[in-house]
Design a protein that fits this description.
- This protein is α/β, with parallel strands linked by helices.
- It has a domain of 53 residues: Oligo-1,6-glucosidase, Domain 2 (Oligo-1,6-glucosidase, domain 2, Alpha-Beta Complex), CATH 3.90.400.10.
- Helices cover 26% and strands 17% of the residues.
- The strands form 5 sheets. The protein has an 8-stranded parallel sheet. A 5-stranded antiparallel sheet has the order 14-15-16-20-18.
- Helix 13 packs parallel to helix 16.
- The structure holds 1-deoxynojirimycin.
- 1-deoxynojirimycin binds next to loops.
Length: 540
């Protein structure tokens, strides 16, 4: 069997660059900080985490008004993160360790401070006017249509300079580029080529289904919903067919540079849209984020259902992609955790790292970082500020990484840009590394087991039926090798049937949250409360 490409076999680790490690002591994470910590991510031994790729949140020059998702120059590094030389060194050092580098690419919008927008807004006949979406209002004080921004409020902002409105799918300081203008398209493809030529291994595409809007800017039909954005059917502002063409062209572009990957953030409430972006599995994105998974509550049946849906819908040549955390979500330790957060974190990790699909980890998840409560006066996230105190913003999942119990959690020599969560004193890399039963060591074991067993990284997936309530169980199989995974979501011991297998099969414990001792009492499998158990089949 030919080996699957790295982006199918591997584990991706998302680094929120501002929050990972600060080498220059200004309180914000930077590229040199990442370089210093690469051995933690993968030093080639089972003692490190062992990830295969890093995805960096945007590091381009930016006012950083939205965590870097407001770019003002796509071909340079923001000085707060370092220099282009630092970047080159980071890529080289990653590659030396077998770590691929995936950059975040924000194609949908720029910052209002991008020189293109500055020019575009300066006059109606500026050559860059059409690089953004400008329209007259319907009437004085009335925006061109009824579209609502993802973060609520009209998606149109009136600009005094020329007396027209510009469109923004997200925040008003993030004007949408006009992808119907061929120059914009060419320029953004040029940006992708620029970074690929520098050696990056692919892109995470921000809001990839938002690039195009309906040409006639028709209003979305209304529907029932708890807030204005959710009270529209987003059929004219989201997921236009032209986006799929861009995905296809980008795929060709990145593949001209080798085995590079495109992972797309597809903003949708209906999971089938994320499937559209996979095409037939070979002609659009390599990976598309499955948002249903992170909307799932702590419930074995719900996760089984969610996985079943994706398994049934991913096209034959395609590949699933799972994550439990990112910089926009409440951390899973808090979201799913409750009273049993530590135990659940291990069960969740076992699921994420043994399902059929590419797992994405988010910095700090591997040490059980919780979502932090950031006081109002220290909030940075524009969404958090906009909705405070009604909705919790995203700063809580972006606080600095806990490296050790020293001041500022070993993240920075200076006060950090967001406060460090107080749990750092007892929950940090240094302490987790020496505790045999820590969450970190569980992640390390899972990753090394996954690496060593092709069934786990490349095999097929089959549910194990007939398990009691609260258990999610499945097998992964490649060739003659089978691994069975039992996940007990419940806080009570239970008993399960063994996986179906030919007579003469014996099962050996590969890994368990409760010790790896052999000799389970088959044919029934006893599971302890919150146990995650991996069994390997041996055929006689
Ligand atoms: C999605 C990103 O994940 C989020 O952090 C950002 O604010 C928006 N896109 C706008 O770029």
């Amino acid at each position: 069997m030919p080996e699957a490409p790295w982006w199918k076999r591997g584990v991706v680790y998302q680094i929120a660059v501002s929050s990972f490690a600060d080498a220059n002591g200004d309180g914000r994470g930077d590229l040199r900080g990442i370089i210093d910590r690469l051995d933690y991510l993968n030093d080639g031994t089972d003692g490190s985490l062992g990830v295969d790729a890093v995805w960096l949140t945007p590091i381009y020059t930016s006012p950083l008004s939205d965590f870097g998702y407001d770019v003002s120059d796509y071909r340079s590094i923001d000085p707060r993160f370092g220099t282009m030389e630092d970047f080159d060194e980071l890529v080289e050092e990653c590659h030396r360790r077998g770590i691929r580098v995936v950059m975040d690419l924000v194609l949908n919008h720029t910052s209002i401070h991008h020189p293109w927008f500055v020019e575009s807004r300066s006059s109606r006949d500026n050559p860059r006017r059409d690089w953004y979406i400008w329209r007259d209002g319907r009437a004085p004080g009335k925006p061109p249509n009824s579209w609502v921004a993802v973060v609520e409020g009209s998606a149109w902002e009136y600009d005094d300079t020329t007396g027209q409105y510009y469109y923004h799918a997200f925040l008003p300081f993030q004007p949408d580029l006009n992808w119907r203008n061929p120059e914009v398209r060419e320029e953004m493809f040029g940006v992708a080529r620029f970074w690929l030529a520098k050696g990056v291994d692919g892109f995470r595409l921000d809001l990839v289904n938002c690039l195009y809007e309906d040409e006639g800017l028709r209003n979305n039909p209304p529907k029932l919903g708890p807030r204005p954005y959710l009270a529209q059917k987003h059929i004219h502002d989201l997921s236009q067919p032209e986006n799929l063409e861009v995905a296809g062209e980008l795929r060709q572009l990145v593949e001209d540079f080798g085995d590079c990957v495109l992972m797309g953030e597809v903003l949708t409430l209906t999971p089938d849209v994320c499937i559209d972006y996979l095409g037939d599995g070979t002609d659009r994105l390599h990976l598309s984020f499955y948002m249903e998974f992170v909307r799932t509550k702590w419930n074995a049946e719900a996760f089984r259902h969610s996985v079943r849906w994706l398994e049934e819908h991913v096209p034959p040549g395609g590949w699933p992609c799972y994550y439990l955390n990112n910089h926009d979500l409440k951390r899973s330790f808090t979201r799913l955790g409750g009273r049993h957060a530590r135990e659940r974190a291990k069960v969740a990790a076992a699921m994420l790292l043994t399902l059929r699909g590419t797992p994405i980890l988010y910095y700090g998840e591997e040490i059980g970082m919780p979502s932090s409560r950031v006081p109002r006066g220290l909030l940075d996230d524009p969404v958090g500020l906009k909705f405070w105190p009604l909705r919790v913003g995203r700063d809580g999942s972006r606080t600095p990484m806990h490296w050790n119990a020293a001041e500022n959690a070993g993240f920075s020599a200076w006060e950090s840009w967001l406060p460090v969560d107080s749990s750092y004193r007892t929950r940090n890399v240094e302490q987790e590394a020496v505790r045999a039963d820590s969450i970190l060591n569980w992640y390390r074991r899972l990753l090394s087991t996954r690496r060593a067993h092709p069934a786990l990284h490349s095999g097929d997936y089959r549910e194990i039926g007939g398990v009691p309530k609260g258990v999610f169980a499945y097998t992964r199989r490649a060739g003659s090798k089978t691994v069975a995974v039992y996940l007990n979501f419940a806080a009570r011991n239970t008993e399960c049937p063994p996986p179906k297998a030919p007579p003469g099969t014996t099962w050996r414990v590969l890994l368990s949250t409760h010790g790896t001792e052999d000799g389970r009492d088959l044919p029934r499998i006893q599971l302890a409360a919150h146990e995650a158990l991996l069994l390997e089949a041996t055929y006689s």
